Amino acid sequence: MPLLFFFFFFFVTPTLSLNQEGLLLLEAKNQLLPSSSSSLADWNPRDPTPCNWTCVTCNPNTSHVISLSLSSLSLSGPIPSSLCRLPSLSTLYLDDNFLISPLPSTLSLCTSLTHLNLSGNLFTGPIPSFLSSLPSLLHLDLSFNNFSASIPPSFSLFPNLRSLNLVENLLNGTIPSFLTNLTTLTFLHLSYNPFLPAPLPSEFGNMTNLQDLSLSGCNLLGPIPASLGKLSNLRNLELTYNSLQGAIPESLISGLTSIVFLELYENSLSGSLPRGAVWNNLTHLEGFDASGNDLTGTIPSELTRLKKLGSLNLFNNNLEGSLPESIVEAESLYELKLFNNSLNGSLPSQLGSNSPLQTLDLSYNNFSGEIPAGLCRRGAMQEIMLIYNSFSGRIPESLGDCRSLMRVRIRNNNISGTVPDAMWGLPHLFLLELDDNSLTGSISTSISGASNMSSLSLSFNMFSGSVPQEIGNLDNLVQFVASHNRLSGRIPTSVVKLSQLGKLVISDNELSGEIPLGISALEKLNDLDLSNNKLDGNIPSELGTLPVLNYLDLSGNLFSGRIPIELQNLNLNLLNLSNNQLSGEIPKEFDNENYKKSFLGNPGLCSSSSVSGLCQNLGEKKKNKIKYDWVFRFIFVLAGIVFVVGVTWFWFKFRSIKKIKKKVMPNMLKWRSFHKLGFSEYEVVKLLSEDNVIGSGASGKVYKVVLSNEYAYTLRVNEKSDIYSFGVVILELVSGRAPLDPAYGDKDLVKWVSSTLEQSGEDQVIDPTMDVKYKGEIIKVLNIGLLCTNPLPINRPSMRKVVTMLHEISAIPRTTSGKLSPYYQEEASDNENHHGNTV
User: Which CATH architecture has domain 206-296?
Assistant: First the structure.
């Protein structure tokens, strides 16, 4: 028995073989992870050293732990003090976890640390000043935490620090000039902290070793310091989302000889872009973004001819003049966004021929002339946005071979001719918007190849011929809008296969025949507008089974027969069946004032309530008028007699009641009701006791009183009231405010947001705790909330449209500049109403 005990003890106490550093790591693991966690499962106490463990690196000569990388392991709690008892530890990565404050002062004992990354955790409070006492520290990353207060003055004492990242914290105070004492720094990121508004210290121009400087969203004011032009080693400069003013200094452009990305967007910069030879030194420049400012003047030709220039964003300014011909020399250009300016003239004919152009957005300018034929010559073009210009001529045939195309928006121009046949069937094209041009020809049968097509918008052109049956092959089609054309023939029966279709608008054409059978299969159809065609037959009763149909316009056709009673099942915001050949009685649900104009121009329709003014025929109305004229006169005289008698009786009765009230109820509340009441004030008053108090407010106490009776009363709730409520929720989320607040005065949240936007801009509406890095997306969500709370219900979007817009905001990948075109989510014919007019 003793021998067995010795054998067991000798072989089952393996921790005696693990060295001291391994034991320290196991101690740290037990503090950071629950015992049930499978992370770091190979940290085996039976091993002699931890050198083969996951996330651990040892010196091959000494077997001492030199690196510990515990990123993204869901660690929680404070940092274990045992880690700094590893004498050779030089690299400690604890980023992307759930670690909390405080940082242990024992971190100052990690004297061998060169790399410390604590980003993406839950640290709060001031940044510990003792960090600067780490003598060997080269790289410090505290980004994406909740550190607050000012940057510690001791940070000016780091002897060898090369990179400092404090992005996305809650640091306040001003950006300290003492950071310029860190002459060894090559990387400094302070972006997206709520610093106090102040100019950028000019001393930053003395940090001549800097290669990467990011100060976006730091509340910077005043001009860009010209001294920054001395940073000849700088490769990346980000000063975006600030309030910088004045002109861009020429010395900044001429001095940044190593610059690769220069980002100045979303400020208040003004004046002209620097011109001339100052751009010649920027031979490494790949991206220049000065969008969202107040820049004027023309685009410098010296900028657009830079060989390595890949991305040029100057949208949302006040630039004028033409696009320089030298742009064709930018052989690396892949992104050109100049929308929302006052640019004019023709585009260089070779634009895109010499560069891998992917995105071209020149919308909302005054460009004219033809669309360059070589835009997709390098086979990389994905997005062409030219809306609201004066382009003319034909769509280049070469775009029909551009199989990389995903989005084409050329609406509101003067384009003529036919659409290249192959362009209809491009496999990756999901948005084709050609509205408001002078295009002719037919919709090609090759459209069957456009398997990714989601939105097809062709309104206000001169397209003719029939809608091809092949359109039924577009499984992803969400909206088809082709109003105000010359389309003829029948609606293709294949349209009922479009299971994703939400909007079908082909009004103001020359379509004939009946609505296809099986239309009830379009369960996502929200908007159906077939008005002003030559359609005939009966209105299908199966329309009444479409679960989300909100807009139904069949006016101006030749439909006959009765109105299907199944339409009463729909939750409609608009119903228009006017100017057809319908007959019979109007269904009871629609026989009211709300639908008064929905049935005009149907001589055979009759209203049982006469609210709509419809009847069998005009002759019968005249006959009835003569027949009952004397009855009305008699009733009028009788009513007059009753009125006089009643007033006299009321006067005497009123005097007697008034005397009774003075004696019995001297403090009786005054009542005024606009509805028929089934109770009296006496019944209410006697229940206003302290036992029934359920709350109190600024106006007094609140009592619970149980009474004997297109008493309560209800209003019909439709989708638009739900949309409004959803919009209020969006505004609550974006503003961080309650729907009702005394601070609004006599306004509610919706009115407060609208008035504040108009008077002070979106910065005074958006919740200041929100991440300004996503300001563009936040503003888009804010605009959706405003759309949902439009005072006119008919102008509010459908919930399906809201979901689509929100989905696009979250799903669309960011561009190189980190921003989206504000027209990216704009859907075709968003501004088109149901009568075919644009606003």
Answer: Alpha-Beta Horseshoe (3.80)
